[in-house]
Specification:
Blueprint (H helix, E strand, L loop, with lengths): L1 E3 L5 E7 L2 E6 L4 E7 L6 H12 L3 H14 L1 E8 H17 L5 E6 L4
Helix pairs in contact: 1-2
Protein name: ATP-dependent Clp protease adapter protein ClpS
GO molecular function: peptidase activity
Keywords: Hydrolase, Protease
């Protein structure tokens, strides 16, 4: 029998004799990707990575360069709710600052 707990996780209910035991599965993880555009300044992307994703300056620079050269870069990996919240927060901040920066959350490969 499959059951959801109060936090949205699913698990399998196993009956062993008279005891019931629930095994929980890890929640599916989502990658937050920054997408390249020709208008958002590199410095703004670094600022976003540092403030919203808690990246060190050097790591933020590397991710920003990946976005610039490869078209996208991974800002972080989170549960679905956290990933979607970060996407919404950063895109709202970018719009407020007049930048067309786009982010997406997609399921981790192999999940």
């Amino acid at each position: 029998m499959t059951r959801r707990d109060g936090e949205g996780r699913t698990g399998t209910l196993e009956r062993t004799g008279t005891l019931e035991r629930t095994t929980t599965q890890r929640p599916r993880l989502y990658r937050v990707l920054l997408l390249n555009d020709d208008y958002t300044p590199m410095e703004f992307v670094v600022e976003v990575l540092r403030s919203y994703f808690r990246k060190a300056e050097s790591e933020a620079q590397l991710i920003m360069l990946a976005v610039h050269h490869k078209g996208q870069g991974v800002a972080g990996v989170y549960t679905r709710d956290v990933a979607e919240t970060k996407v919404a927060q950063v895109m709202a901040h970018a719009r407020q600052q007049g930048h067309p920066l786009r982010l997406v959350a997609e399921p981790e490969a192999g999940e």
